[in-house]
Amino acid sequence: MGEQPTLHLLNTCPFCWKVRGVIEHIGLDVEYVPVNGMRIKKDVAFAGDWGKVPVFTAASGEHVVDSTPLMKYLDKHHNEGQLTRHLNQERTKTWLEWADTNMSKATVPILYGTLGSALKTTTRISKLEEFGFISKRLYAWAGFPIMWGIIARKRVKSDGRTPKKLWHDLLTEFTAAHDEQPFFGGDQPDIVDFAAFGYMRSISPFPQFKLLEDHTMGMAWYTRMMGSLA
Fold first, then answer.
1. Residue 114 and residue 147: Cα distance in Å, rounded?
2. Residue 208 lies in a domain
3. What is the mean pLDDT of residues 89-99?
4. Lower CB density within 10 Å: C or N end of the chain?
5. Are 198 and 161 in the same domain?
6. Is residue 1 one of the residues assigned to a domain?
7. Residue 157: its pLDDT value, please?
8. CATH code for the domain in which residue 35 is found
9. Domain containing 94 — which CATH number?
10. Which helix (H) or strand (E) holds 143?
């Protein structure tokens, strides 16, 4: 028998939350290993030149990286492919790409879209992640103007919508694709549900999550997704 599987992760990483949702849904016993946000490449160097999280190490010692392929790997090897067993594979592929393109990019504006929200986010991250004494304070106070001024402000300006409006539009588009079913996957969530859920759930540790709570259909789906976890 091999070692217990591990998942090297950041506690606030959207891509890690995608994978964690699948792990919790299928009830897989995995050890979560937080990495230092200031030295990710060093902490996951054992997995090759990927240099990012999440990194899953199977009981056999095999390393699997990249969130969407990793979700598919977990479903195939530990869930009999239940999340990806569809009659319409093209629809699944299209909407997975939609989530990975649109929802992933929308996480930055809502968390860092204003100077105030950026400070709240970096301060919260510094408390949730594995930082050293000095790097914790450095990230909290030096990170927020970088994330706001260089990345988030540019995305908000280019999109033209407020971060809340952007997320509400995405949730409206996504839940409309459920065709009046509880989940995108129908009666049960599928891999697209867990991709979208991961991005939305990654905002939940932050006060900005309240901006999503008045989207009725989105929050109803989110609550059902929470109920699907083991």
1. 10
2. yes
3. 95
4. N
5. yes
6. no
7. 67
8. 3.40.30.10
9. 1.20.1050.10
10. helix 133-146
Percent of the residues in the chain that have a pLDDT greater than 90, as a whole number? 68
- Would 84 be classed as within a structural domain? no
Sign of CA dihedral 5, 6, 11, 16: negative
CA distances from 225 to 15, 109, 134, 199 (A): 17, 24, 38, 12
Residue 83 lies in a domain: no
Q: Which domain holds residue 144?
A: 89-227
Return the higher-pLDDT residue of 146 and 115.
Answer: 115
Structural domain count of the chain: 2
Does 72 lie in the same domain as 96?
no
One domain, residues 209 and 116: yes
d(CA 176, CA 172): 6
Tell whether 74 and 105 lie within a shared domain.
Answer: no
* Long-range contact pairs involving 188-191 (C-beta distance under 8 Å, separation at least 24): 188/82, 188/228, 189/25, 189/83, 189/224, 189/225, 189/228, 190/83, 190/84, 190/86, 190/92, 191/22, 191/71, 191/72, 191/75, 191/83, 191/84, 191/92, 191/96
Mean pLDDT of the 34-63 span: 92
112/193 same-domain check: yes
Closest CA to 72 of 100, 31, 110: 100
Q: Compute the 3-state secondary structure of the chain and give helix, strand, coil in percent, each to the nearest 5.
A: 60, 5, 35
What does the pLDDT look like over 129-166, one tens digit per residue? 776 655 655 555 454 455 555 555 667 667 789 999 99
CA distance 181 to 45: 43
Q: What pLDDT is recorded for position 126?
A: 76
